[in-house]
Input
Amino acid sequence: METKNKKAIVTGGTRGIGRAIVKELATNTYFKGVLSDVAFIYNKSDEAAQQLINELENSQTKLFAIKADVSSFEETQKAISEAIEKLGGVDFLINNAGITRDTLLLRMSEKDFDDVIDSNLKSVFNCTKAVLKNLISQRSGRIVNISSVVALIGNAGQANYVASKAGVIGFTKSVAREVASRGITVNAVTPGFIKSDMTDKLTEEQKQKLVQNIPLARIGTPENVAKLVAFLCSEDADYITGQVISVDGGLAM
Ligand code: NAP
Output
């Protein structure tokens, strides 16, 4: 059994799936080596960030909140340097931050498109680039990118979002090939319909329609996704790289 805490950076840690990932990595002892000190990055929710720190106060791990916009290259380089300094290194990067600006393409503005690509795809480049030298020099590391099941099947009203999430899959596979020889794995997780602020925006009618298409006939939880992320960070997952793994109740099978 490893006893030393791992060091994880999670983007978008204040809410939804990211928050569940922070909690899982900071408290889980089920998978070998996954108990982690965590630096999480968020954009706006100061109160939620403080609440999470308070909630995990008594865990055996250290937690740091860093406010930065991961769609900005410069801001991200500073935030990740700060995270690595506070943690004293980095083992895992979880690229989870993301936004939606849903509308049909006919009505989609250039800003709707650019904002989503920058927050969901460019952010993954920004963060990955910022940790890569550290991971390469220690010849180990785990990168988990949160894509979406819609990247596999498309979704009307989400051309910007789906393009960003499909980009994340291509990025994942390419970087996985680049860094495999250095002992670093890079995988993508594609959640289906998961309860969070992002999906709370949908109308009841939209939610019911979505659930009808899910073989397991229910919405997933952020914890369903967080458990898979923890597994991909564990030593048990050391032969898995370049993969796209769905947590979607069977939606995209
Ligand atoms: P959420 O509840 O809306 O939370 C989004 C998180 O990302 C928040 O912590 C937010 O920080 C952070 N964030 C957004 N833009 C950022 C930026 N530019 N810089 C730094 N942080 C930023 O979302 P969620 O539903 O948990 O989704 C998490 C990830 O899973 C996203 O990538 C999403 O696309 C993906 N996903 C979600 C679902 C789903 O059904 N929920 C399905 C498939 C994929 P603030 O709190 O400070 O704003």
User: Anything to note?
Assistant: The CA atoms of residues 39 and 64 lie 4 Å apart. Residues 11-18, 41-45, 48, 69-71, 96-99, 119-120, 146, 148, 191, 193-194, 196-199 surround NAP (CB under 6 Å). The longest helix spans residues 110-138.
